[in-house]
Amino acid sequence: MTRIGSSDLDVFPLALGGNVFGWTADRDTSFAVLDAFREGGGDFIDTADSYSAWVPGNSGGESETLIGEWLASRGASDDVVVATKVSQHPDFRGLSATNVRAAAEASLQRLGVERIDLYYAHFDDADTPLEETVAAFGRLVEDGLVRYTAVSNYSADRIAEWVRIARELGVAEPVAIQPHYNLVHREIESDIVPLAEENGLGLVPYFALAKGFLTGKYRSADTDGHDSPRAGAAVEYATPQGLQIIDTLERIGAAHGVSIAATALAWLRAKPAVVAPIASASRVSQVGDLLDGARVDLTAEEVADLDAVSEWTPTDM
Question: Catalytic: 120?
């Protein structure tokens, strides 16, 4: 178990991504994946109020609804930490105070819980003063609707500003950052990682498997034979360096008896301030690799090998 920043939330060191629930995983499959994750020791689920509004026929909130139904049917509300987000639901866009409150109440209803464990500002809202948003999140904590606050997809400067404002207002400070971070996307190491370390914020990286590329399934720019909705995005990483990363993951994983995906997750867990990478599963058969990724520990030499093969500079951006 690992603690999220300065909170008292001790969680399994991998978060199950809920973005696929109501999208590539129907209700029965979602329940089966959640069951397998919980049976394997998992207790940290990540979702957002907008999942999965992009699917034809969906309106947003489908993932939260399925998770809420699962929590109720399994009596798991007290045993599982649920993180969700606000700002992208079609009915609750942005981070005005009124919207934050209304969106949180809607999420609570869909999830069927009395309090959201970890509540993220999903994307920055340039049209709303940051002071207004920070105060609104603080009130959610004061009123008992949210346990802890967090930010996702914010720049390092804006995160620092959020922390400063929270301290000035005397309201809850964020305990976590959810950034895009993986072996083929390491840009946050120059600014957000040091900021997280300085302020005691836990990192909960999304796209931990680079949209599926770090599973090793995509070894060329050809998407033929792949029916995943993410295949087109994943193969963009099939560069010479990307394929070198896959080869190194495969070698290291073999030494531990785990998959390429599990090894990629283990590398992330070894990085400074990382609490729990986020990874999703559209099939029960994929859950085992995620659980392995939360348990296998790489040696310092193995981490260094992966650091070297995935080395980047700011000019690569």
Answer: no
